[in-house]
């Protein structure tokens, strides 16, 4: 596995490249142009600036997360074609600077959703929390307003310019079914996958987080059957999945280990993290350690190892530890600890393999 670390960019992240350099075994940063609105073509000078900054610290920039998909594409509106053209141009430019994987998602309106970004744990750390009953009973506007008011930095997908549009978007999604979304996704893939393939890039869709419908909006990248269906929509090596253990694993019916065994060859990029699921459907993000959550992180890493996995891996969200002030889920400390746990498992599996041979 090739370890990478998400970095939001100079001036946009509390974590610096200087710090990331001190985490053992990190070879690259996972990046994006966070100030370019979804649907617009990424300017080459801005792309080069991030690549150069990362390269100065010895990091590669082979993984991008995310190039966001404009809502008109997900909605299948006639205006989608111009946004798809922009998307293709961005893919080509990223290919020119050596990008190998582009992570994106196809979730209507919202990216990942939680009800509390600073849930206090018993040990004094805080974590991202999802309270099922609260989400089911709150108006989305109210939740968004509450969350953005309490957070200095916005969550990805919760950018102010998108959220201003919230009620208009909800109107547009009325009557859009899961099957409509599948059709719109297929249309998009048929357009972009050949461009990605020519550019030496694998597109890697991120599963829906949480993997079920929220606020009545359709969500389709939610389970093993749907991942299989997704991969068959366009059966090309350039059409892949970002297998996110924490996103998929929030539904106890999902067997993440089975998904690794089935799909590893189509997973250029893995997000590995743990979640603790409660009986009432709530979940909280925990440390990466197997014993701390509901997911068998050891088993997941072992599955990748058994498959001879050579793709990129990043720790996903972390808790906020030791009073760190940071972007929710994206502090330095817990993600660094997560990396050491993942390497610990991986290195002992490697050693055991060598000793058996
Ligand atoms: C959360 C991330 C997601 C992911 C997007 C990919 O931290 O895993 O926001 O970046 O869904 O498009
Ligand atoms: Mn993820």
Automatic annotation (TrEMBL):
It comes from the Bacteria. Its EC number is 4.2.1.8. Belongs to the mannonate dehydratase family. GO terms for molecular function: ferrous iron binding; manganese ion binding; mannonate dehydratase activity. This is Mannonate dehydratase. Pfam families: UxuA. It catalyses: D-mannonate = 2-dehydro-3-deoxy-D-gluconate + H2O. Catalyzes the dehydration of D-mannonate. Its cofactor is Fe(2+); Mn(2+). Pathway: Carbohydrate metabolism; pentose and glucuronate interconversion. The keyword Lyase applies. The keyword Lyase applies. HAMAP family: UxuA (MF_00106). GO terms for biological process: D-glucuronate catabolic process. Keywords: Iron, Lyase, Manganese.
